[in-house]
Amino acid sequence: MEVTRKNYKDSLSTVYSAIEEADFLAIDGEFSGISDGPNVSALTNGLDTPEERYTKLKKHSMDFLLFQFGLCTFKYDQTKSKYITKPFNFYIFPKPFNRTSPDIKFICQSSSIDFLASQGFDFNKVFCHGIPYLNQEEEAQLREQTEERRNQQANGVGTPSFISPSSSKGPAHVPEEHKDFINRVVEKVEALFSNSEKTLDLDPCTGFQRKLIYQTLNWKFPKGLHVETVETEKKERYIQVSKVDEEERKRREQQKLEREQEELNDAVGFSRVIHAISKSGKLVVGHNMLLDVMHTIHQFYCPLPELNIQPFFFLLLKADLQDFKEVTMCVFPRLLDTKLMASTQPFKELITNTSLAELEKQLKENPFKSPQVETTERFPSYDTAQEQLHEAGYDAYITGLCFISMANYLGSFLTPPKAYISARSKLIEPFFNKLFLMRIIDIPYLNITGPDLQPKRDHVLYVTFPKEWKTSDLYQLFSAFGNIQVSWVDDTSAFVSLSQTDQVQIAMNTSRYAESYKIQTYAEYIQGKEKEKPGQTAKTWGEDGWVKSNYTSSTTSGFGYPRYAWTADPSVFRKRSISPVQGAQGTEEALIADGWSHYSYPDSTGSKKMKTDGV
Amino acid sequence: MEVTRKNYKDSLSTVYSAIEEADFLAIDGEFSGISDGPNVSALTNGLDTPEERYTKLKKHSMDFLLFQFGLCTFKYDQTKSKYITKPFNFYIFPKPFNRTSPDIKFICQSSSIDFLASQGFDFNKVFCHGIPYLNQEEEAQLREQTEERRNQQANGVGTPSFISPSSSKGPAHVPEEHKDFINRVVEKVEALFSNSEKTLDLDPCTGFQRKLIYQTLNWKFPKGLHVETVETEKKERYIQVSKVDEEERKRREQQKLEREQEELNDAVGFSRVIHAISKSGKLVVGHNMLLDVMHTIHQFYCPLPELNIQPFFFLLLKADLQDFKEVTMCVFPRLLDTKLMASTQPFKELITNTSLAELEKQLKENPFKSPQVETTERFPSYDTAQEQLHEAGYDAYITGLCFISMANYLGSFLTPPKAYISARSKLIEPFFNKLFLMRIIDIPYLNITGPDLQPKRDHVLYVTFPKEWKTSDLYQLFSAFGNIQVSWVDDTSAFVSLSQTDQVQIAMNTSRYAESYKIQTYAEYIQGKEKEKPGQTAKTWGEDGWVKSNYTSSTTSGFGYPRYAWTADPSVFRKRSISPVQGAQGTEEALIADGWSHYSYPDSTGSKKMKTDGV
């Protein structure tokens, strides 16, 4: 169901009840861009810490607009043994709703816009008919402003934009050149009192003149008048004066109050849908959803706090990420990322490509089963054979399908096997609140409800070199040390992961007298960063001159190697040498007893570090 | 004529010849926003110096996208006694043309987007079919890259993204895990030499693998092969190897060269139209065209230089503006701004509203005459009765009409009167290269070909006060000094212009013991700014947090007063008390002899300062 400003109000109850009755929700967002700073490969360095990654995404991705939001609700129908789906595709645009409302600026990235254009994205629908929204602070401000204006008008001191500390005392000071104008208005109003007309429309005039009229009339005629600013079709504003008795005045005030309340709700707009999702507490499923979650919170709840750079930079980074995790848990208490799920045992061995489109295809094949779904009447049903990828509603829909297939697959390990695993099953709890981290070699996910994994990086070197160097120079430099993996940091530095930790010292010794390049251990690099002056740290990303054109050609890393390949940190992912058959002996409870471990199956790579296998 | 990426190449010769044959050109641009920093009233302070205004516009308006460019050519047909017009409406979008091309980011301002949406602007046409462009530096870089790649491939060292200082020496270093792959490729190529096939399509592979293939084949088979990267429909890249004799090899090289040349021209795209306008040296007319000119140069020629803040801040500002003037004269040697023309004598007295739509209407009425125009066949003709305002092509069209009406009106003062005044007439030279300055009280225009006007500002005070203050507080504070005019600078400061210069000292004395506010003379204010540390100056605008929402309610200035009202600086605009009839006694030559003076007619305000008349 497509939802724009035109049908938003009429659709809201449908949306609310769909959320209310659902077993779980799937979401997806489309944005006006991805990175306003470094190119994506620099934005997502393979050896980022979770703190660094979060900080980079916040700094370089939050100024884009989330302009299409997909929501698909899934409700299991026991009698039909199938899911009933209701997909919604919302178009979002921060249309200023009045003169004093926030005038949002957002960045568009040509490559993202061009990509969406090539997928048939309808920009006119976004910009002409997008649903507005307010975050919580803006909503509170607006409520306050409305309240204030109401009080002031009740006290006869005009509209808030024209209130000054002095203007509430006594009659208005009318500047000389406006005296004639105001006197004429007063005469007209006096005439109104003595004739049979009920209302008087004054000529359109300026804001300043309206202020003077409000003040003068409130002072001269404290009773019996209702004074209101009205807009003509041409958006010219004029004042309408009506003779009213006390009852009529109150009725009008009440009407105005209700109208204001409705305008306020209209302004809050799409945020109300997010509030409903949040309040439902339902499981929210997304695919590679970290950016979706960040954008949703940033746009509809509260701007992700700006990093306030201070001496203990790294500690602060951690506090910053911790803040985000806490906010996320308040807004979305249960999240599940299908890309992370597909990248984890037992799916990891079965799924070669975890991009949404490919995942959806693979999950239709053996050993998985296509879920039985049915789209509710009145909702246009999506056909997965006719891919409508990158329409947010469709992406949310197939993300939900992927989740169902994978969840049901887990049921096949139970004794007896279960064909249907609900969104409330303990079997899927191990996947809760872990958001996939793109292209980090050794940390698969951001753990929203606990501390993050801390992989050892003692086989990693930090190398700085002249900007002419390419990946091949690094291969050549380290050719004596076996296979390496390169993660570019910027034009003149990269992380180089050696396959054997014991080679690190040898590499360090060899480089001692080098002039053109410099090698540090990962530990030295981190120490250096912690000592670094805050200003310098900011500079690394701050002067990227994002509006400048930037011919990039050399910072892509790891040509021809798998994009990521991670080993579980042993303390978290205990590997047990059990076959799927052996592992499927217990009950559902036993199966989930020690969390992730049951989803780890014998790894053909044995004890070798996976991160170096790919090289 | 609507021009998008689809018909751009076919239209180019039509555009070129229209420019070539034209008597003058009219232009207009539509942008994705106006100000990314302060709100517009703060961006355009009534007492900005030309340097300040230019610097603010550059800093806060250049990150928007000029995404629709209107060009209307006007050619006078002597036999028909009318202008033949060719209006073009170009849609512009920086679609990245390949993987290494600039990925432009631009800002959208919700209010501007919403306004254009309300005017029926077609965003899909911009984003899906906009014509790309490159500025001169990008074009040069691309030519260089193409040249370099060509040389390198001729020398057999692969594509530039994979070239390293070491890789041109000897055979490629093939990493262990790719040796099998490369050996298989070599075997296949050897087989190609011994069989009857002419070409061999290798399987799609990674960029790194392609690099290895290029290097290996160039080293192993220095002659008789043509190796080329080709893309499948699915955008997968693979290598095609062809057996060729020397002649065939050269022919293919030539073809490739031509293809590359065409791709390069496609990438330069819309900039070629601007180059043609520039090279033509024709008079370019625009309405309130400063931003159009700045954007056009910034987007299609060279980014307006970033301000490099250094100690002598004010001197630097001037150097900065001087740079801009010089660049402008190179790109557009003859400009004419119809808003400035309409705000100057003799038009000033006759035209009450100089907004484009209103101006166009007023110039149809007595004493002006609607120009006789005819749109060339094949060009959809615009009907001014059906306003299509804010479509750039239409705005350019009516801007041209306004210019013709005003120019012809000047002809009525000649003896004998002339009904047609050409774009080359000396009568209009006084209006050349003077760009209207929006809402500056006492400087009507930016003088592109000379020093700017330097009005006296000794009746101006700079007042700082608590942020709660509104305009009315300032009126009250200065109530003893007669009428004032307020120009807000920011939340806590404003310029206050007194009507009498001799009141300045009294106001200063009165404020001596004030605690809540502070008053400086304009001269003191300027001195203070010059002493100010560079960092602080930058801060004033730099931390405006443009993506933050900002409820503005109090910084609008001068409610109810005319937006601007300026007096000519006497040294430039010498006023002569002659009536139009008296003034129209001489020949055309005599009429233009002392520039602007003939367009000044008796001013009903006599010697009073106009800037205070409005108050």
Automatic annotation (TrEMBL), chains A, B:
Keywords: Cytoplasm, Exonuclease, Hydrolase, Metal-binding, Nuclease, Nucleus, RNA-binding. Residues 141-175 are annotated as: Disordered. GO terms for biological process: nuclear-transcribed mRNA poly(A) tail shortening; priRNA 3'-end processing; siRNA 3'-end processing. Its main location: cytoplasm. GO terms for molecular function: metal ion binding; poly(A)-specific ribonuclease activity; RNA binding. Residues 141-151 have a biased composition (Basic and acidic residues). It is found in: Cytoplasm; Nucleus. This is Poly(A)-specific ribonuclease PARN. The lineage of its organism: Eukaryota, Metazoa, Chordata, Craniata, Vertebrata.
